[in-house]
Write a structure and sequence with these properties.
Blueprint: H1 4-16, E1 26-30, E2 35-36, H2 39-46, E3 53-57, H3 58-64, H4 76-88, H5 96-106, H6 115-130
Antiparallel strand pairs: 1-2, 1-3
Helix pairs in contact: 1-3, 5-6
């Protein structure tokens, strides 16, 4: 489970640090590291699991984080954890949210965020990092 500080770091990386999400001022981060812009999705994600989600505002994130944090500066454990998650993840449409979160985490550029596009991008990235 992630600490609140780690969840804020993820919120900055996945949402608040990206220009295309400049109009989003609140995110909901589950303790497993998944970040949602819709509270209902966060509720559904944690339902029946022994975890909860946290509401993180843009203001809160900006006050606790440096101006811009890039993946290279993140905690090595988080990078290792996300790499392991990618290696173990079955790249299928049913895992869309996890695939999207990994694409954003690793900064993989895609023309869109459709499931098939994410599968192709993550497959190529897996091949690249395992070479």
């Amino acid at each position: 489970m992630k600490s609140l500080a780690e969840l804020i770091e993820l919120a900055v990386l996945f949402v608040f640090g990206l220009e295309k999400y400049e109009n989003i001022n609140v995110v909901y981060a589950a303790e497993d590291g998944n970040v949602f812009t819709d509270e209902n999705r966060a509720k559904i994600h944690v339902k029946g699991k022994e975890m909860k989600y946290h509401t993180i505002t843009r203001t809160e994130a900006e006050q606790t984080q440096p101006e811009k944090k890039v993946v290279d500066e993140l905690d090595e454990n988080l990078i290792a954890e996300k790499t392991k998650e990618l290696e173990e993840l079955e790249l299928v449409s049913a895992n869309y949210q996890k695939m999207k979160s990994l694409v954003l985490f690793f900064g993989i550029e895609t023309p869109d965020l459709k499931a098939d596009t994410l599968i192709d991008a993550l497959t190529q990235y897996k091949t690249k990092i395992s070479a």
